[in-house]
Write a structure and sequence with these properties.
The chain is α+β, with helices and mostly antiparallel strands. Helices cover 25% and strands 25% of the residues. The protein has a nine-stranded parallel β-sheet. A six-stranded antiparallel β-sheet has the order 26-27-28-33-30-31. It is globular and about 75 Å long. The two termini are 45 Å apart. The model has no long low-confidence stretch (mean pLDDT 97). The chain binds ligand MIG. The site of ligand MIG has 10 residues, from loops.
Length: 661
Amino acid sequence: MEKYVYGKPFDTQAIINDIEAVPGQVPIGISAIIDHKFTFDYMMKPDDIVYGLGEQVRGINKRGWEYISWATDEPHHHEDKRSLYSAHNFLIISGEKTFGLFIDYPGYVKFDIGYTRSDLLHIECEADLKLYYFEGEDVLDIVSQFRKAIGKSYIAPKFSFGYGQSRWGYKTKDDFKNVVKQFENHDIPIDLLYMDIDYMQEYEDFTLNEKEFEPDFSEFVNWMKSHKIHLVPIIDAGIKVKDNYFAYEEGKKNNYFCKLKDHKSDFIGAVWPGYSVLPDFLNDEARNWFGLKYENLTKYGIDAFWNDMNEPALFYSKYGIERLNKQLKQFLANDKNEVPYFKLCMDVESVKNSMDDYCRFYHNTKEGWIRHDKVHNLYGYNMTKSAYEAFEKLRPNKRTLMFSRSSYIGMHRYGGIWTGDNKSWWSHLDLVLHQLPALNMAGFLYTGPDLGGFGEDTTPDLLQRFLQIGVFTPLMRNHSAIGTREQEPYQFEQVQEIAQLIRLRYRLIPYLYSEYLKAIENDTLMFKALAFDFKDDPIAKTIEDQLLIGNEIMIAPITTQNATGRTVYLPEPMLCIVCKKGSITQTVMKAGWHYVQYPLNELVFFVRAGKLVPLGPNANHVQDTNLDSIEWLGNGTTYELYSDDGISENAEISITTLKRS
Ligand code: MIG
């Protein structure tokens, strides 16, 4: 790893144990600074593949499109987008020359990866950055160097490997209890139940809805506990502007919110609670203060959270609305009765997540006052760090489930991420496969998509296909938006087919958790593109719809409607595992291309030759999963199991070699 410094970079703390900068130029490509703009250009060979960039749209090979690192509340993950919620500025160019780059700049960064010119990789951002350059034997070697440099990933509590049910719209105690009862009645495993913004009083962070949850929230939490359910409340970034609301009053008094240019007045944006202020997570005291507020929920025994709206999302701001008001007046005063419709729409749309607003507020950091746009991508990262640091005090020696919507590299030490507001679309199944390896590269191991799709109406077959991927992702959560078709498994007549997938997930938990710990411990990937392991196989390099999971499994999910099978490429001989109604068959397959049947009501995947995967007995909760009896998948002889107590902060990991008996 080599480090190059340009201008005066802000310390993002992405890299731990930072190294001395090397003078001069990156040994590859051409870097330049003109008018305080940094550019890097590299001529790619025709066969070069570009991996990385974490949470982004498009393929595993990032080549052929332009991407922008700018954390955005983007509910339309269409292929024409350039930014989603996170900024993961790490990429690997793999070809004749294989190298990695980490652009440690927390503002706006553009990556033109063979978009403008098919042979040109062009990166640009403001000239205040650290650039890390990695050379290595291959992709995996570079990934592991990078992962060592950014520090160990957050280890989620083991219970978070259970199935989670979520829906934006659960409001009353009974809404929540009914979900649990339905799962119990249908004998479907579940460990987590998510509470979206409606549990709060008027969307005020760290409050409980007075009618529903005050004053007997303890009772409710205990009811859930007795049903082995962990509640997972959401926390939003914005704090409602409201007199006598403790979070607002305390933060205002102590100057914990982001300020306007005068460094005195609070910046006023708007999110769910209406006008809101933004905690200054880049300020140590403010970050510390906000984190300790989670105590309002941990004191009831809550041990799991998700952080939302922390790009930060802005529906509008006071300033944007003032401008829009003027524009609307002009528009209404137009006596020609002509409607400049598109302009009107654009004016209205432009108040949302506007660059004007992001340039309007400031953070009070150790390095002085800094305008938000220069450090935009660090906001969600530091919100999550705020919680993590507080959990060490609020829940000493215990792991707390925490995942965030927005992130930057470095946040992986404090929590996981989910991939935001996907849709109930078939194309978003492929998106999951494309994102997972890149997320792992950036250090995010505890991750997964909204299964079933968040926006729009799902269908049972789509949900099943989603779950056939979700069986393998550490975060396995079914989540949907308010107003969409309800998509809990029991909403469909196929409930038992769906339940079968979740049951298999629980039987796989000892294995999945083991591979997850392995990936963290050894700075490796839990999800790999085939090309990462089969680097000399020219076909493996082109496969974008199959993934390797851990060291043993390969998945080749169905991602198209009505398909009952698909072509699968086996880079080496494997066993095809077919799970159907509780019984499992294993068939040896030769390397090469196959057409594999994959009906809707089965789970089909592959175990690599000479490997073994332990399947435990059925369990309806993570605490009841075990390997007391094992059904072996694969034709190997041993499996190296990583395990720990699943809950202590610095739990010792034990490594056991399991032998097929
Ligand atoms: O503006 O809290 O991505 O998971 O259900 C939408 C409501 C705000 C966005 C999150 C989604 C969550 C929703 N939130």
